[in-house]
Design brief:
The strands form two sheets. Strands 1, 2, 3, 4, 5, 8, 10 and 11 form an eight-stranded mixed β-sheet that branches. Residues 179-183 and 274-286 have low confidence and may be disordered. It contains seven helices and eleven strands. With 286 residues, it is an alpha+beta fold. It has helices at residues 12-20, 31-48, 62-78, 82-92, 174-178, 239-244, 277-284; strands at 4-6, 24-27, 100-102, 106-110, 139-144, 154-156, 200-201, 209-213, 218-220, 229-238, 264-265. The longest helix is centred in the N-terminal third of the chain and has 18 residues, at 31-48. The chain has one domain: Jelly Rolls, CATH 2.60.120.
Length: 286
């Protein structure tokens, strides 16, 4: 992990290999990403007020905020335009739609620090997404809906790209934990103190995009910016990489076999489950 690529023209195959090697890719706003963010903005403003509130939690009780947030998550995930917009996004970034599978985007609303009791609601602890029953070839696409500051960014912890951290990922049950309620789910955490410094925070414009391997150790910086952070994130896997067991090195993930049935083919929106049984076995057991 030693390079951040800005607006790289690399082909998807090359980009994936660089991501698996720990590099980061940052892109300026593109039409497809702007369109996806505009859908999110429209839904947020219809729920929380227009223009999009810079402090979404102002005037709302914690319960009211959590209800509104939960509703917005579902609206964005299941809006009839969402899959089509992601299809356009992946096409614009040069992905092979017949080989690329994605999961539905998650809306993240990060209030300013201290609003939610006990820091409820976001991953503040460093973690790898591969701890959550994900294959080593999983790639994160992180998209800010509005401009944000370093004080509410993601932080990457490069010391752990090659070094393990003790964690409880072997206890994670994707079916029972991840699907219940995002804020109440029991996600894996480090079981030892993680060395935070040095850290890398990437700040890009609204509708920009940050790509990184799910094997990256990263955390959500406690929001001290004074403003609400709105972002979307989705994950992709490449079929050939999943079947071949390609991806970032696994230094400390002990979660159960990766379950890919929520991933949708970018070409025709069929689920990964719909491939043949022999192919499915090759893809699931990584």
């Amino acid at each position: 992990m030693n390079t951040i690529y800005f607006d790289s023209s690399a082909q998807d195959e090359v980009r994936r290999q660089q991501l698996y090697a720990g590099q980061l890719f940052v892109f300026s706003p593109r039409p497809s990403v702007i369109a996806l963010c505009q859908l999110a903005r429209d839904l947020i403003e219809a729920t929380l007020g227009s223009p999009i509130p810079q402090r979404a939690e102002d005037g709302l009780s914690v319960k009211e905020f959590l209800v509104a947030e939960s509703s917005l998550k579902q609206q964005i995930m299941h809006h009839p335009q969402t899959k089509l917009l992601i299809q356009s996004l992946l096409q614009e970034f040069g992905c092979d739609l017949s080989k690329t599978y994605f999961d539905l985007p998650q809306l993240r609303i990060m209030p300013y620090r201290g609003y939610l009791p006990n820091g409820e609601g976001m991953f503040h602890d460093p973690h790898r997404d591969t701890w959550y029953a994900a294959p080593q070839c999983i790639i994160n696409w992180w998209i800010p809906i509005c401009d944000f500051a370093s004080e509410s960014a993601l932080a990457f912890h490069p010391l752990y790209w090659k070094e393990p951290a003790q964690n409880d990922s072997e206890q994670f049950n994707q079916g029972q934990d991840y699907k219940i309620n995002f804020r109440e789910a029991e996600f894996p955490h480090p079981t030892e103190k993680v060395v935070i410094e040095p850290e890398i925070r990437v700040v890009c414009p609204a509708s920009g995009i940050l790509l990184f391997s799910g094997a990256q150790m990263h955390s959500a910086v406690p929001n001290t910016s004074g403003l609400t952070r709105y972002s979307l994130d989705l994950r992709t896997i490449h079929y050939d990489d999943a079947v071949a067991g390609k991806g970032a090195p696994n230094v400390d993930s002990h979660s159960p076999d990766a379950l890919l049935t929520d991933f949708i083919q970018a070409a025709d929106f069929t689920h990964f489950l719909n491939v043949t049984e022999s192919q499915m076995k090759g893809a699931v057991v990584l």
